[in-house]
Amino acid sequence: MLSETSIELRTAKPSLMMRAIKWLMARRKPVFPHTASEFEAYMAQRDLPQDAPMPEKFESKYVVERWEAAGQPVVTLHPKSGPGVWHMLYFHGGGFVLPMFDVHWPLIAAMVERLGVSVTVPLYDVVPESSHAVQDALADEVYAKFAASHDPSRIILNGDSAGGHMALSLALRLARAGGAMPGKLALFAPWLDLTMQDEGIRGVEPHDTMLKIGTLRSCGKMFAGDRDPGSAECSPLYASAEDLALLPPTRIWTGRHDLFIVDSRTFTGKLRDAGVDAKLYEYEGAPHVFMAVTPTKESKDTLKLLGEFLAA
């Protein structure tokens, strides 16, 4: 059940830098086309996308490992001092259909530097050129590798947007299979319902400069393939209470000008009802995946809270 301890408003108004970022975002070409028909036309004619390359300076700032799992590339960053006590498996967002963005690398670097964690980033093949099954196989293999060589209680699953969905879905697959569970789960603006059914989302849509309901529904169908997008398999918001009860302590961060805020609140309530140690942190006026804008007050607060979550 939601209570005053389930949701915490961290900022009552957006910082000056966040307002400037939102102003710029509203004037740039959107990451996703704003209508389903435009999105489908774009996907039908696009060139095969490529991951944004890791900045060269990372080679000297961190210990970098490049490897493969399920035939797909993986990058692990360790602090220069060596592997962290915690190991984070981080899934980048992009609607399952877009590769690693250049803004993801500074966010990952900030977590390595400020939290002292090792971070592994699967550079998964995207839909529709690939499939959800290929993405899941990569996630499963990477986690199995670390669970075999690390204390699972010191592994944290994390991700933003569709990547948050991937982290949560991995945790749910592990729970259903009775596998070794990660110690904690962190979700940055997770996509929880591919069908975007809650009517309350429409009230947020005019404020979201990046995401639109129709586009997301079309994207969700593309990712689901021959599955029902509204099933628990595709939309973790509808996972059973029995499965949710097996999840580790969970923290969620979402901006109030993000379409996913509505489902984040609902999901936090479901986690609490299932007996999970769960909390949602909200940021007034903040857009989708605001924490990727690392110089902002809001992003710094997110990482501060994440550090406290790991230390608890």
Automatic annotation (TrEMBL):
GO terms for molecular function: hydrolase activity. InterPro entries: AB_hydrolase_3, AB_hydrolase_fold, GDXG_lipolytic_enzyme. Signal peptide: none annotated. Residues 88-291 form the Alpha/beta hydrolase fold-3 domain. The keyword Hydrolase applies. Pfam families: Abhydrolase_3 (PF07859). It comes from the Bacteria. The keyword Transmembrane helix does not apply. Keywords: Hydrolase. PANTHER family: AB HYDROLASE SUPERFAMILY PROTEIN C4A8.06C, ALPHA_BETA HYDROLASE FOLD-3 DOMAIN-CONTAINING PROTEIN-RELATED. This is Alpha/beta hydrolase. It comes from Erythrobacter rubeus. The lineage of its organism: Bacteria, Pseudomonadati, Pseudomonadota, Alphaproteobacteria, Sphingomonadales.
